[in-house]
Amino acid sequence: MREVFQQELREVQDRLVEMAEFVENAIENATRAFNESDVSLAELVIADDRKIDSAALALDELAINILARQQPVARDLRIVVSALRISASLERMGDLSEHIAQLARYRFPEKVVPSSLRETFHELGVLDVAIAKKLTELLRTEDLKLAEEIRNDDDRIDELHVGVFDAVLGETWKGAAVDTVDSTLASRYHERFADHAVTIAKNIQYLATGEFSATA
Amino acid sequence: MREVFQQELREVQDRLVEMAEFVENAIENATRAFNESDVSLAELVIADDRKIDSAALALDELAINILARQQPVARDLRIVVSALRISASLERMGDLSEHIAQLARYRFPEKVVPSSLRETFHELGVLDVAIAKKLTELLRTEDLKLAEEIRNDDDRIDELHVGVFDAVLGETWKGAAVDTVDSTLASRYHERFADHAVTIAKNIQYLATGEFSATA
Question: In angstroms, rounded to a whole number, what is the distance separating the alpha carbons of residues B132 and B138?
Fold first, then answer.
């Protein structure tokens, strides 16, 4: 029984890693579509979000099924409950990737953000992709050094996010309303994506250390 | 044992209702602070968000505790797992109320949105408050008619949300960049608030009918 349970926990973990890989792919394509105004890549991201949603539903069913059959306690129970939370966060990260891709599609053939902010959004995209890759590795290896790196990357993203608002609200801003709207939303989506990664990282740290931390 | 368990489920439900009441209060004050530029009310909402966060943490601990001790199966298990999900959504609704209040505080003593959009935001606020009240009642009574009403209110909110973008991107828009940013974010926060309520309503419908529906 115990062995079956351990095998099922590995199955949960494998599925979380797989979901994280889908998300990694989504944010990689979304930020490229966004930065390069690649409308077909944007459409791919939008279509593929269903895969992430289905994976989340399937994983939740598996987790509930394990709770019902194995009735885990203590740390094992926390692992299964955490899997439900992590799955919800990954699902939202998929949605946010989709939102970034949608901005690229709406504005096509125009670029989404004005040239003065393109470098900032390039860096935001690079950081979100890096965070997604670290998250996949964190889920695979439970190496807590990666959780720390994700928090640091998120701090830099928060700085860039504030920088976008400073630029848009600054006296030298020449953007039209559409540029202001797109920059505001895009910055928010990039920032929320990273927030969810931090929430997942905290969940994993909690499992490893037993210390509870608010699910920001 | 069974009776203790039923009592614990009622405790979970009572706490969810209490959290929903906190959220109702938060969105009521946040939208009033937003519409009337009431900075002290905004600060109250911001300070009170901690109560919602603590309530969410406490509820999650209780739910995990019940899973560990009672090892529920079938419908009982679904109820406890749903409580975890509902608590997470309520916590986010509290955050979004806080974000709306923060916009009011940032712009004080100015109003957050230009006069041309004030009526729209008034209606968005009224609808979010109505949704929060219906959600509290839905959690208390499990009257599925309320779930349906929440979905309908959300449809109207989506229309208004699109209307804000149409206004901001229209040719007659005279707002400064700060108005564009605030209107974009505020509209998004109002809309996300309602989305979470719909997600919770779907959770409750699912518990009642057994039919699974994607967690938006």
Answer: 10
pLDDT digits (tens, 9 = 90+) for B45-68: 999 999 999 999 999 999 999 999
Q: What is the rounded (10 degree) CA torsion for B131, B132, B135, B136?
A: -150
Residue A192 identity (one-letter amino acid): R
Contact A85 B81 (CB under 8 A): no
Structural domain count, chain B: 1
- A104-130, pLDDT tens digit by residue? 999 999 888 899 999 999 999 999 999
Residue B179 belongs to some domain of the structure:
yes
Residues of A contacting chain B (CB within 8 angstroms): 53, 56-57, 64, 67-68, 71, 73-74, 77-78, 81, 84-85, 88, 91, 165, 168-169, 173, 175, 177-178, 180-181, 184-185, 188, 212, 214-215
State whether the Cα torsion B84-B72-B146-B158 is positive or negative. Answer: positive
Query: Chain A closest CA to B141's CA: distance in Å?
Result: 25
Q: How far from the centroid of its chain's Cα atoms is residue A141's Cα?
A: 18
Counting residues of chain B whose pLDDT is more than 70, the rounded percentage is 96
Q: Which two tokens stand for residue A5?
A: 């349970």
Would you tell me how many other CB atoms lie within 10 Å of the CB of residue B166?
A: 10
ipTM summary value? 0.92
**Inter-residue contact B37 to B31 (CB < 8 Å):** no
Domain that holds residue B24: 2-209
Residue A215 lies in a domain: no
pLDDT score of A1: 61
CATH code for the domain in which residue B12 is found: 1.20.58.220
Selection from B94, B111, B91, B126 nearest residue B26 by Cα: B94
- B32 domain-assigned: yes
What predicted TM-score, i.e. pTM, was given to this entire model? Answer: 0.94
**Residue B215 resides in a domain:** no
